[in-house]
Design brief:
The protein contains 11 helices and 8 strands. It starts with a strand and ends with a helix. Helices cover 50% and strands 15% of the residues. It has helices at 29-43, 67-72, 76-95, 111-118, 145-152, 154-162, 170-176, 186-201, 205-215, 222-236, 240-251, and strands spanning 5-11, 14-20, 50-55, 100-104, 108-109, 121-125, 130-131, 181-183. It has one domain (5-201): 2-enoyl-CoA Hydratase, Chain A, domain 1 (Alpha-Beta Complex), CATH 3.90.226.10. It is α/β, with parallel strands linked by helices. Helix 1 runs parallel beside helix 3 (76-95), helix 4 packs across helix 5 (145-152) and helix 5 packs across helix 6 (154-162). The strands form 2 sheets. A 6-stranded mixed beta sheet has the order 1-2-3-4-6-8, sandwiched between helices. The protein has a two-stranded parallel sheet with strand order 5-7.
Length: 252
């Protein structure tokens, strides 16, 4: 997984899933698949009543797709497989019977915004600005788009998708409904996360599962939709325009 990893800690009914990659917590394909499977496995653990999704470090929450892997894609099959990783993670969170709390300690880009949009309740610090940078590198937020749109609405998602080189502040994200609360420090955020997670761990699991189904009603077609969207990205990433744009973006 190119030095990336996913870990799980279960304590007092709370399952904390943590992902890491040395390149600003970016997400190579195999790391995405491991994350998706870990979410499903943790959901199936009877000891877990609620989940927390977070990343390691104090810097970026998630830098999105791995540029090194993107630029190495040379055929549509490989492109589809890579972008399907995001579909697998989003669908794993969507199908989970347990509520998932998000912890966003710093900036979220592209697929990282998709992750933040796919949790059920998201905390962040005031450093956690967001950007959907996909159009700037010749593709678009096709796979994560439905998750982002579901959370913030079509208008706000469109703003992020079109103005692909500009950051939107954590306050903006809170006003649009992506974040529920934002904090000055990670310590304050972690205290709030722990308080809510413990409350949920002591709540009725059946009631929470039924609520989750209601929250995600109308997304049942995502099993097909997100993979159709992955095919679009997989095709676009093969273009000379996109490969040149990614190289330029990497040199920054």
């Amino acid at each position: 997984m190119n030095e990336g990893r996913v870990s799980v800690n279960v304590e007092n009914g709370i399952g904390s899933i943590t992902f890491f990659h040395p390149q600003s917590n970016s997400l190579p394909g195999e790391l995405l698949r491991t994350l998706a499977q870990t979410i499903t496995d943790t959901d199936n653990n009877d000891e877990v009543k609620v989940m927390i999704l977070k990343s390691e470090g104090e810097k970026a929450f998630c830098a999105g797709a791995s540029f090194d892997e993107l630029i190495a894609i040379n055929d549509t099959e490989t492109g589809l497989r890579f972008f399907s990783g995001f579909a697998l993670v989003i669908n794993a969170m969507r199908k989970s019977s347990k509520l998932i709390i998000g912890r966003v300690q710093n900036k979220a880009v592209g697929g990282g915004v998709g992750l933040a949009s796919s949790v059920d309740y998201c905390f962040a610090t005031n450093k956690a600005s967001v950007k959907l940078s996909e159009l700037a590198v010749g593709i678009g937020p096709f796979v994560v788009g439905p998750a982002v749109e579901r959370k913030v609405g079509l208008s706000a998602m469109s703003q992020l998708a079109i103005n692909a080189t500009e950051w939107a502040s954590a306050q903006w994200a809170k006003e649009k409904g992506l974040y529920t609360e934002i904090f000055e420090t990670e310590e304050e955020m972690d205290q709030a996360i722990q308080t809510l997670a413990q409350k949920l761990a002591n709540s009725n699991p059946e009631a929470m599962a039924d609520l989750k189904k209601i929250f995600w009603s109308g997304t049942e077609h995502w099993d097909t939709l997100l993979f159709e969207r992955a095919a679009i990205s997989g095709r676009l990433v093969l273009s000379t325009f996109t490969k040149n744009a990614i190289e330029k973006f990497k040199k920054g």
